[in-house]
Amino acid sequence: MIFTVAIDGPAAAGKGTISRAVAAEFGFAHLDTGLLYRAVGALGGDPIAAARALSPDDLQRDDLRTLEAGQAASRVAVIPEVRAALLDFQRRFARAEGGAVLDGRDIGTVICPEAEVKLYVTASAEVRAHRRWLEVGGDAARVLAEVIERDARDMGRADAPLRPAEDATVIDTSTLGTADAIARACSLVRAAL
Ligand code: C5P
Q1: Distance separating alpha carbons of residues 11 and 145, to the nearest angstrom
Q2: Tens-digit pLDDT profile for residues 45-76
Q3: Phi, psi torsion values for 139, nearest 5 degrees
Q4: Is the pTM value of this prediction over 0.90?
Q5: Whether residue 47 has its Cβ less than 6 Å from ligand 1
Q6: End-to-end Cα separation, the chain, in angstroms
Q7: How far is the C-alpha of 102 from the C-alpha of 128, rounded, in Å?
Q8: Would the CB of 131 count as within 6 Å of ligand 1?
Q9: Does residue 8 line the site of ligand 1, with CB under 6 A?
Q10: Which atom of ligand 1 approaches the CA of 16 most closely?
Q11: 117-167 pLDDT tens trace
Q12: Angle between helices 34-43 and 80-94 (to 10 degrees)
């Protein structure tokens, strides 16, 4: 069975948690596509060459979750040649036999517009910054500023900007608890199956 769940949205909205839960519930493969951009940013040097040569080992680095790695990822993610180099891998993953969940910024709009289920998971910048701050600590105002800066870059870029697909279901986790958000996502997948 070919079946794709596309989960897009801004940083720290809860995409990863929902994606992992949906993948586990239905036995689908899961790809966190942000890791691809984080790895390209972390490799340094020429980002286009890094994207073209990216290997599974590069995704195992333990420094990919930091605020700096997120900023570096969003800077290389504006480069069309970087996005193009990562496209085929993501498309093949999305349409591989057995079902797949991909979370990112452009899955429902660019990578897999034919996805059977499209979710746009979002929350206010303040709520998302607070969640990120609980993970990384440090200066809360700086974490909020980083979230706002990254949103602006991801939404404002010319190539594959972050936006909900027209046929996406929006899940706002500002007030919705984790269990309810997961239940909502799973029921949409179940209905589409
Ligand atoms: O989701 P995560 O915070 O790990 O993503 C890091 C950055 O990678 C995002 O801010 C965005 O700039 C970029 N990204 C993207 N397209 C995706 C996934 C991530 O441009 N599908």
Answers
A1: 12
A2: 999 999 999 999 999 999 999 989 999 999 99
A3: -80, 115
A4: yes
A5: no
A6: 10
A7: 20
A8: no
A9: no
A10: 1
A11: 999 999 999 999 999 999 989 999 999 999 999 999 999 999 999 999 999
A12: 140
